[in-house]
Amino acid sequence: MRSYGPGSPLVFSHIPKTAGTSLGAALEQVLQPEVAVLGGIDTALLGGYDDLEGISPIFRAGIYLTPEELPADASLVTAHLAPGTTTVRYPGADHITVLRAPQVRMLSQWMHSRSLSEFTLRRWGPSGDAFRAGRQPLRGYLDHAKVAPTVDNTITRFLAWPHPALARTEFIAESDDDALVDAAIARLDSFAHVNLLENPRFMADISAWLGAELRDPQLNERTSVLPSMRADLVAELDADTRAHLDHRCRLDVRVWNHVAAQVLPDKDPAAVLEAAFEKSVKRYDELLQRPYDASLLRRVVEGAYELKAKVSRTRVTN
Q: Rounded to 5 degrees, what angle do the CA atoms 28, 34, 36 make?
């Protein structure tokens, strides 16, 4: 197995909603690092809800505004930290990442946001509105400029950041498409290992590269959704919304295709993407039918926080 230590850690560039929590845990189990960055974010995907002072200290500690805030002696980094941050702090590190079918990743992002109660969001202060944006219908969520980094070609943004064509509250101009895709692919081509969640061998491939067997990950997905946030997924995905979803993923699909040509050379990438999307829609549709799995105490507490938030919004409106 490769040796990782101070200044040259293994960096897993965890793109949100790509099963990275499980993979990160598997890497931690094998490497057993003395110093590690396990979780946290930088500013690459930070949108317009950026009142960091309102975030609870325990969560604020996991937001890295500069590369220098990361520990120099880390031997493992598994976090939502863009390579634009980690390559500065750890220029000798091996970087790896896993991509997910872009439209599926986007649906997972939306469903995750809709699963977070006011009780869960209480520690995020005003920045919790970045998650509350997901309570809008999918079509509106895709046009919510203040969360543009998480709904507009997030994979490409994460890899290309801090490209000058990227802005926190603006959608990517089509005139910048080629430049951003080129930047994202150039970044991926510099990585030690890149794979796809849709590749049935992706964990075996990473294990072979690392030289150590990693346990198969389980998707870190929600098992139920707040009753008040349940939507008719089929209705949400009407033709216009699906087309808009594809538009918001247009660059990510090109980047995903680049990796697919390497790890799934015998597969039709369009067919793989469509099959992954259909499977995801079916899974989420089933999830939306399940009973809410929170305990009675949790439901009571969540209800109290929801009522408090509703009263607060009413006062602001009036």
A: 60
Give, in order, the Cα–Cα distances in Å from 212 to each of 1, 2, 24, 121, 149.
6, 9, 14, 38, 34
Average pLDDT score, the chain: 92
**β-strands 36-41, 10-13: how paired?**
unpaired
Among candidate residues 186, 185, 183, 180, the one with its CA nearest the CA of residue 167? 180
pLDDT at position 222 is 56
pLDDT value of residue 220: 53
pLDDT band at 56 (very low <50, low <70, confident <90, very high): very high
Determine the pLDDT at residue 41.
96
Please state the pTM of the whole predicted model.
Answer: 0.93
Tokens of 119: 């009780």
d(CA 281, CA 113): 16
Helix (H, G, I), strand (E, B) or coil at 160: helix
For residue 217, what pLDDT is reported? 60
The answer to whether the CB of 35 falls within 8 A of the CB of 101 is no
Q: Residue 245 and residue 152: Cα distance in Å, rounded?
A: 9
Strands (E), the chain: 10-13, 36-41, 76-80, 94-99, 193-196
Q: Roughly how many angstroms between the first and final C-alpha of the chain, as a whole number?
A: 62
The amino acid at residue 15 is I
Rounded to 5°, the CA angle 37-114-118 comes to 80
How many Å separate Cα 109 from the centre of its chain?
Answer: 7
pLDDT, one tens digit per residue, over 119-174 is: 989 999 999 999 999 999 999 999 999 999 999 999 999 999 999 999 999 999 99
What crossing angle do the helices spanning 239-248 and 102-114 adopt, rounded to 10°? 110
Residues 6 or more apart whose Cβ sits within 8 Å of residue 73: 5, 6, 7, 35
Pairwise CA distance, residues 175 & 104, whole Å: 25
* H helices present in 153-221, as ranges: 154-160, 177-189, 202-210
Whether omega for the bond prior to residue 162 falls within 30 degrees of 0, making it cis, is: yes
